[in-house]
Amino acid sequence: MTNHPSILTVFASMCLLAITVHADVVGTGAGLVPPDNNSLGAASTIAVSQNQLISGAVIISLTGLSHTHVGNLVATLTAPDNTSIDLFRSIGGIPGDNSNFSGDYIFRDTGGNIWTAASNANGTNAIVAVGAYQASDGLGTQLSLNLAFLGKQTQGNWTLWISDNRVNDIGSLGSWSLSIQSVSIPEPSIAPLVGIGLLVWTIRRNKICCNTEFRKISTCKTS
Fold first, then answer.
1. Which of 148, 125, 8, 138 is nearest to 77 (CA)?
2. Contact 128/81 with Cβ under 8 angstroms?
3. What is this structure's pTM?
4. How, if at all, do strands 73-78 and 156-164 pair?
5. Which of 107, 131, 155, 187 shows the greatest Cβ crowding within 10 Å of its Cβ?
6. Phi/psi at 169 (nearest 5 deg)?
7. For the residues of 14-73, what is the DSSP string, one character each?
8. Would you give the end-to-end CA distance of the chain in angstroms?
């Protein structure tokens, strides 16, 4: 008697083909100097070559960020598909908090509230504490980097924009980095082909008798 592969065996093989590979996508971008009182700002780009699907945390690190009057600044991250999200915008509202940036600042979903940190720094010549913060918009609403980019592809240019929107205060960014939790893009499914193969295999072993009146299918024994 000929041994035929079971449906479970075929299904297990398909599952092995569908296994995804988890990998972190990382990159480092050059520093920049946003021109004073210029809403166009300055940009720095990280070109990501890996073609993955974003599945988890998106983390942005700003290294050596210095600027007087944090309320002057707007920082935005733009993905390869042009999805954009604020890292921070006019902290403290208009005319903005007059505390300073000086150090390394990380933006991730598990960070603190940068508006609160700026308020706690308490004004001119005070420094916003270095550390990790959640992204926020111009009203102080907390934003999710993870949700903004979930399911999108990593490959392409990721651009950081920083603009200084008031006069008399200047600053710079030393460098920045990008870290993204991602998985490999699944290969096209072979399930339809497997299904056709199983059907052909079944027909060759059996005669299919179809009763169209009662919409029943029965299997007839071969002679």
1. 148
2. no
3. 0.76
4. antiparallel
5. 107
6. -130, 135
7. HHHHT---EEEEEEEEEEE-PPTTEEEEEEEEEEE---EEEEEEEEEEEEEEEES-GGGE
8. 16
Distance CA 20, CA 35 (A): 44
The 8-class DSSP code of residue 123 comes to S
Q: Distance between CA atoms of 83 and 58, rounded to whole angstroms?
A: 13
Which tens digit of pLDDT belongs to each residue from 153-165? 999 999 999 999 9
The secondary structure of residue 142, as a DSSP letter, is B
CA–CA separation, 176 vs 158, rounded Å? 11
Asked if 192 contacts 90 with a C-beta cutoff of 8 angstroms, the reply is no
* Nearest of 116, 105, 93, 95 to residue 176 by alpha carbon: 105
Q: Is the CB of residue 65 less than 8 Å from the CB of residue 174?
A: yes
CA distance 73 to 166: 8
The alpha carbons of the chain give a radius of gyration, in whole angstroms, of 28
Summarised one tens digit per residue, pLDDT across range 98-146 is 999 999 999 999 999 999 999 999 777 899 999 999 999 999 999 999 9
Torsions phi, psi of 12, nearest 5? -60, -40
Separation of alpha carbons 53 and 155, rounded Å: 9
Two structure tokens written together for 49? 């070559």
Contact between 104 and 61 (Cβ < 8 Å):
yes
> Which residues fall within 8 angstroms of residue 11, CB to CB, at 6 or more apart?
none
Q: Which amino acid is at 95?
A: P
